[in-house]
Design brief:
The complex is a heterodimer. Chain A has helices at residues 19-33, 46-50, 107-128, 134-145, 189-199, 206-223, 249-268, and strands at residues 60-66, 69-75, 78-80, 83-86, 92-96, 99-105, 155-162, 166-172, 177-179, 182-186, 230-237, 240-248. Chain A is α+β, with helices and mostly antiparallel strands. In chain B, 27% of the residues lie in helices and 29% in strands. Chain B is built from four helices and twelve strands, in the order E-E-E-E-E-E-H-H-E-E-E-E-H-H-E-E. The longest helix of chain B is centred in the middle third of the chain and has 22 residues, at 85-106. Chain B is globular and about 60 Å long. The two termini of chain B are 25 Å apart. Classes of the chains: A alpha+beta, B alpha+beta. At the A-B interface, helix 2, strand 4 and helix 3 of A face helix 2 and strand 9 of B. Chain B: Belongs to the peptidase T1B family. Chain B: This is Proteasome subunit beta. Chain B: It comes from Oreochromis aureus.
């Protein structure tokens, strides 16, 4: 399942995601004309067939670990089909003092599952007197999402936190639960990975890591239509999470253009 | 509910299919219909405005010219919902019932923020057979400042300063971004929005929407929410 790409519930001819659905429809028409009605091989979700509107989708989020902790960054655009439903969404949500989660996929699903996760973590803390580890949180979330596997619920969360060291775990509603050093999720993730893979290493300083994350999100928003507007950045250390002020990428684009213009002029000289 | 062709909104010939052969057409019962209408909400320093047109349409017909889409929930909160009228009616019934239940068990009226959170869970409870409604809540928060909460059909919500929803939302939202948010303009002074200026802006914006969107028109219902209460006003729009 592609995350961050419009799971288009419309059946317009231009949407490539629906091509498989449309070809299934024509096959069904052809089968109807013959006398034998074969069983439907792939169940198509009921909601996808009925609803005439699109849900909020589309994103670039990333997280990576380095010697100074964990960095989580995301854009702030929520798109519903071709419309920007909201240009200032919070895609990174703090769960507790040492854990933030970046969300990607359907806006409503992510919002609700973050709320559920906050509630469950808090309840565990009250009942057992200590905080649940990041790995256990990921397992808990994954098992809560399991009953909805196969439905068109689309949730892809990256848990970025600190417990005895920086941790980064990716959990998604397909059932994946992966620990790693760098994750980028969403329709803009290929562009973000390209920028990250170039410079990322364990020994980055805090300033370098922040500027790398910013750069990755900026480049992804530039190339991906479904990502854009601002960049949110969180830094998690042993002391907890801290949020950098939300930055409008429009200014960054003009600064970058100016820099490139200057470089070109320098080359010509 | 009419037997609606599944391809209703995506360039099919509509009534013309009786006169032209368009190939095999699959008819299927759809539980949804699109009844049109636009809703808008603006939050100011100490006021909030919720406005909607009053046209109820379906396909090429107008069912009613006097069907406003603003629903008064409490003394400080108004809900605007557009989309499928059947789901709007049921949703407002459910919200009214929940408000009464809250009032009886907690002995106080629900605040705007609490109503927004409750609406989000009500909408998400129908995640796999959604309410086809675009909701916008406008009201005053606990501090008396204006608050606008906008929703998508499955319950994702956000607090905003202004939001347009419904059929003409894509036309109105950029205009609001420019006039209220001062976006995409260089060298302008950001003056705070007064109540009278906001009401005038809302009227102008709906007149523009009625010009360009077929599902918007007939009349405009504006609800202005201040700490004194809710003041309703109806202004005529184009009826064609």
């Amino acid at each position: 399942m592609e995350h961050g790409v419009c799971i288009c519930v419309c059946i317009s001819t231009s949407c490539h995601t629906c091509k498989s659905y449309k070809s299934a429809r024509t096959q069904k028409q052809m089968r109807k004309s013959s006398s034998i009605r074969p069983l439907q091989t792939r169940p198509v979700s009921l909601t996808l067939k009925i609803v005439p509107f699109r849900l909020a989708h589309g994103t670039t989020t990333l997280g990576f670990i380095f010697q100074g902790g964990v960095i989580a960054a995301a854009d702030t655009r929520a798109s519903a089909g071709g419309l920007v439903a909201c240009p200032a969404v919070h895609k990174i949500t703090p769960i507790h003092s040492h854990l933030v989660v970046t969300s990607s996929g359907s806006g409503a699903d992510c919002m609700l599952w973050e709320r559920i996760l906050i509630r469950e973590i808090r309840l565990y803390q009250l009942r057992h007197g200590h905080r649940l580890s990041i790995r256990a949180t990921a397992k808990l979330l994954s098992s809560m999402l399991h009953p909805f596997k196969g439905t068109e619920m689309c949730v892809a969360l990256t848990l970025c936190g600190w417990d005895n060291g920086p941790k980064l775990i990716y959990v998604c509603s397909d059932g994946a639960r992966l620990q790693g050093d760098v994750f980028s999720v969403g329709s803009g993730s290929p562009y973000a990975y390209g920028v990250l893979d170039r410079e990322l290493r364990w020994s980055l300083s805090k300033g370098e890591a922040i500027s790398l994350a910013r750069e990755a999100v900026f480049r992804a928003t530039h190339r991906d239509a479904y990502s854009g507007n601002n960049v949110d950045l969180f830094h998690i250390t042993a002391q907890g999470w801290s949020q950098r002020k939300r930055e409008d990428l429009k200014e960054e684009y003009y600064r970058d253009k100016e820099k490139k213009g200057k470089k070109k002029n320098d080359k010509l000289k | 509910m009419l037997f609606t062709c599944m391809f209703q909104h995506f360039g099919d010939p509509g009534k013309m299919k009786d006169y032209h052969y368009t190939g095999p057409v699959e008819h299927k019962f759809s539980p949804y219909a699109f009844n049109g209408g636009t809703v808008l909400a603006v939050a100011g320093e100490d006021f909030a405005i919720v406005a909607s047109d009053t046209r109820l349409s379906e396909g090429y017909s107008i069912h009613s010219r006097d069907s406003p889409k603003c629903y008064k929930l409490t003394d400080t909160t108004v809900l605007g919902c557009s989309g499928f009228h059947g789901d709007c009616l049921t949703l407002t019934k459910i919200i009214d019932a929940r408000l009464k239940m809250y009032k009886h068990s907690n002995n106080k009226t629900m605040t705007s923020g609490a109503i927004a959170a409750m609406l989000s869970t009500i909408l998400y409870s129908r995640r796999f057979f959604p309410y086809y409604v675009y909701n916008i809540i406008g009201g005053l928060d606990e501090e008396g400042k204006g608050a606008v909460y906008s929703f998508d059909p499955v319950g994702s919500y956000q607090r905003d300063t202004y939001k347009a929803g419904g059929s003409a939302s894509a036309m109105l939202q950029p205009l609001l971004d420019n006039q209220i948010g001062f976006k995409n303009m260089e060298g302008v002074e950001h003056v705070p929005l007064t109540k009278d200026k906001a009401v005038q802006l809302v009227k102008d914006v709906f007149i523009s929407a009625a010009e360009r969107d077929v599902y918007t028109g007939d009349a405009l219902r504006i609800c202005v929410i201040t700490k004194e209460g809710i003041n309703e006003e109806t202004i005529p729009l184009r009826k064609d």
